[in-house]
Write a structure and sequence with these properties.
70% of the residues lie in helices and 0% in strands. By secondary structure, it is mostly helical. The protein is elongated. 10% of the residues are buried.
């Protein structure tokens, strides 16, 4: 089976576009707290400061320990998966983004206005991750069903399994 370098349908194109942007966001924004100060460009630090001031996102202003773990996971796990495994990636993004959204709505010192703005940033990640997970599950299920059908001789005339309890 030949592998094409171009997307075959609209969801493939959406994934390609998303991951191109996502990898850039990971490297230029999300992973910046992990970079040593000596090698972090000032423009990235300025971008972080602007974001924190504009959106009041406490995950970046004063990250809880578990969020720091998620950030490390982005560097060690999400970045490589962004290039490779969509189904696993979609499950991880669904769990981590849902966790952040639930925590965010418990912040008493952040206005509803800022929470809605943050939802506008985090929500599309969650929606695309859920869509991607459903799509990847359907694709994998279809391929597995086709293999099973081919292995059984198209479902008809397959030999009955031998009785393993029978002694000859």
């Amino acid at each position: 089976m030949a592998i094409s370098s171009l997307p075959h349908n609209s969801s493939d194109f959406l994934y390609l576009l998303f991951f191109a942007i996502h990898i850039l966001v990971l490297l230029a924004f999300d992973l910046v707290p992990l970079y040593p100060d000596a090698v972090t460009p000032q423009a990235l630090t300025d971008l972080q400061n602007y974001y924190i001031e504009t959106y009041q996102d406490r995950f970046f202003a004063d990250p809880p320990l578990w969020f720091r773990g998620f950030t490390l996971g982005e560097g060690l796990y999400q970045l490589p998966l962004s290039i490779w495994a969509l189904l696993i990636y979609s499950v991880v993004i669904t769990v981590t983004t849902t966790t952040c959204l639930l925590e965010m709505y418990s912040w008493d010192d952040v206005s509803q206005y800022h929470k809605k703005k943050l939802l506008g940033l985090y929500g599309p990640y969650l929606a695309l991750a859920v869509f991607m997970g459903i799509d990847m599950h359907a694709r994998i299920s279809t391929r597995l069903a086709a293999r099973e059908k081919a292995a059984s001789g198209d479902g008809g005339g397959a030999a009955a399994p031998k009785n393993i309890n029978k002694v000859d």
